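Feature request, filed as a ticket because there's no other form

It would be nice if the structure record came with a short human-readable summary line next to the tokens. Right now we just get the raw output. Example of a typical job, pasted below so the devs can see what we mean:
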Amino acid sequence: MTLDRWREIVDQIKDNFAVESFDRQSDEDGLGKRETLIFTKPLGRLKLEFAVRPKVIDKKVTYSNRIGSEVAVDYVYSPDEVICRLLAYRWSEADDDWLPLEGQKMFS
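Raw output as currently delivered:
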């Protein structure tokens, strides 16, 4: 999933369905961005989350073999490569919560 394709999907949803909310926010660590779109279609309420984060290119673990010592993990992020992820959820009235949606059921 690319950012351009995500924009096309958002435009199609805004044209064809009732959009409840569209929210943009930064991740807690400030590295990534997340967009959330909640809309209603005949299947019910759906939520799409599109997350963009820098690609992890290295992980450095600092530790000591002494009992009770601390462990620290430092991630090295790529300055120009990003990872995009699309997650879909369906609202469940019975559970009163968002449930993950399978890929084939998403746009049927």
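Something like this underneath would help us a lot:
Helices lie at 3-16.
The chain is about 15% helix and 55% strand.
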